[in-house]
Specification:
Elements (H helix, E strand, L loop, with lengths): L6 H28 L3 H10 L1 H12 L1 H31 L1 H30 L1 H17 L1 H17 L13 H13 L5 H13 L4 H4 L1 E2 L12 H11 L3 E5 L6 E6 H9 L15 E4 L4 H11 L3 E5 L5 E6 H9 L13 E3 L5 E4 L4 H8 L11 H9 L8 E4 L2 E9 L2 E9 L13 E2 L4
Parallel strand pairs: 4-5
Antiparallel strand pairs: 1-6, 2-3, 5-6, 7-8, 8-11, 9-10, 9-12, 10-11
Helix pairs in contact: 1-4, 1-5, 1-6, 2-3, 3-6, 4-5, 4-6, 5-6, 8-9, 11-12
Length: about 450
């Protein structure tokens, strides 16, 4: 049986409403302020100094305001639940009071103090940040709260010791990619923006070996070539820089610039040895991070480097354009002949280039080919067979057959990828094992 509503109950209800209002403000502040970049905060401070300066101080070091805000939210939620339990326990009795209080707590706290204010803050980030910046800064400057937050963070660091724990919460690369995907699905960011963000995140893990032009595909000028010969090669392939072979043909002596060749040709020096115009070239290891290489290219003002393997042999070459393409996608100019690395055939099969990166194959077929051992699909086929395949020779992996379609010397140029009939995928074939073929 429900009890009569008294003045004490009114005080409890008033206290609950005050706590709910504070929780709504803090939820909007947490979401709105964290979505404002430092540059955006600077622009707001220029337009509205009174609120913008407070916002600027908060976004410069977000961990200094997030921890006090989250602790305050936890305290207010605990107080709200306690007051609700007292109120509904007195009004409806023991068991029914607990049930009603639980339902009200879940609905009110989730819907009105979490979902609604945070959704509004996502849709109106700037407005939410400006409205809550000054109250949040006052809260963060409240010294007892700062002292309590520091003590609790110190306790967590003592329980879970490790470097960098004081710097705040960690977000893994996978979690960050998940956030980007969710933002794209919710149309917060465009699909093109999502692809660019994902490319930037993955860019830090890319090494030169993965994006270089491999040694067999390099266009190299012979050591005894004249200026006219070298210029013919440059014009035929549309390159502005060409490596020059050493006498034994195994090393690269330097670079020939097409501009230098054109100038010498116009001056009537077409018969001059091209080696007289040689310029120095940078050599880099094949495991050099592309992000670091691109910064060095910018600082050193060079656009091409030769990639060497661990034994000092020439593995390939890499250009500034190759680095940029890892971020923005393929760059095709007027002289490039665009060749699709993957062709979908009417039969449902695929023709893929042997140099297609394993990561792109995994994304295309939704399979898991290890990319630690092989960089390319051709390397995967070659490494699994353990010999140079004959055309038509194949392997099977996770329900797909990979057959050598075109082999040039020791290089696999084209691979035919098709699904394995269900009758052959009942356990008789091991993953990534050589398949029987006619």
């Amino acid at each position: 049986m429900a009890a009569a509503f008294t003045s004490n109950d009114g005080l409890l209800l008033g206290g609950i409403l005050v706590l709910l209002v504070l929780l709504v403000v803090l939820a909007a502040a947490e979401t709105g302020i964290t979505r404002i970049s430092v540059h955006k905060a600077e622009a707001i401070a220029h337009e509205d100094p009174r609120r913008g300066r407070a916002l600027e101080r908060l976004v410069e070091e977000p961990e200094k305001f997030l921890n006090p805000v989250l602790l305050t939210v936890n305290i207010l939620q605990t107080a709200t639940v306690t007051l609700n339990s007292l109120l509904f326990g007195r009004l409806f009795g023991g068991l029914w009071g607990f049930i009603v209080g639980l339902i009200v707590n879940v609905v009110v706290l989730f819907v009105f103090t979490e979902a609604i204010p945070k959704t509004w803050a996502v849709m109106h980030s700037e407005q939410a940040a400006k409205a809550t910046a000054r109250p949040t800064l006052w809260l963060v400057r409240f010294w007892p709260l700062r002292l309590l937050t520091g003590a609790l963070i110190g306790l967590s660091n003592w329980i879970l010791p490790g470097k960098g724990l004081k710097k705040g919460p960690f977000v893994s690369e996978r979690e960050l990619l998940g956030i980007v995907e969710a933002a794209a699905n919710d149309e917060v960011i465009e699909h093109e923006e999502r692809e660019l963000i994902e490319s930037i995140i993955e860019f830090g893990d890319t090494v030169a070996r993965e994006v270089m032009v491999p040694r067999p595909d390099m266009v190299i000028v012979a050591n005894d070539a004249t200026v006219t010969n070298a210029l013919d090669v440059a014009i035929a392939h549309g390159y502005s820089r060409l490596p020059l072979h050493a006498e034994d043909g195994g090393d690269v002596l330097g670079l020939l610039y097409t501009k230098d060749l054109i100038r010498a040709e116009r001056d009537g020096n077409g018969d001059m040895p091209a080696s007289d115009l040689l310029r120095p070239v940078r050599f880099i290891p094949e495991n050099k991070p592309v992000a670091r290489l691109m910064r060095e290219m910018q600082a050193g003002k060079f656009h091409l480097a030769i990639v060497a393997d661990e034994y000092g042999g020439i593995a390939g070459l890499i250009t500034l354009e190759d680095c940029l393409e890892e971020l923005v996608g393929e760059i095709v100019d007027e002289y490039d002949i665009e060749e699709l690395p993957v062709q979908r055939l009417p039969s449902g099969e695929y023709l893929v280039e042997g140099g297609l990166p394993v990561d792109e194959l995994n994304e295309l077929l939704d399979i898991d080919v290890p990319n630690e051992e092989w960089d390319s699909v051709g390397g995967f086929l070659f490494g699994t067979l353990e010999h140079v395949p004959e055309p038509g020779e194949s392997i099977e992996h996770q329900g797909w057959r990979f057959a050598a379609e075109e082999v040039d010397g020791r290089r696999i140029r084209l691979i035919r990828v098709s699904t394995v009939p269900a009758t052959l995928t009942n356990g008789h074939q091991d993953a990534a094992s050589p398949a029987d073929h006619a």
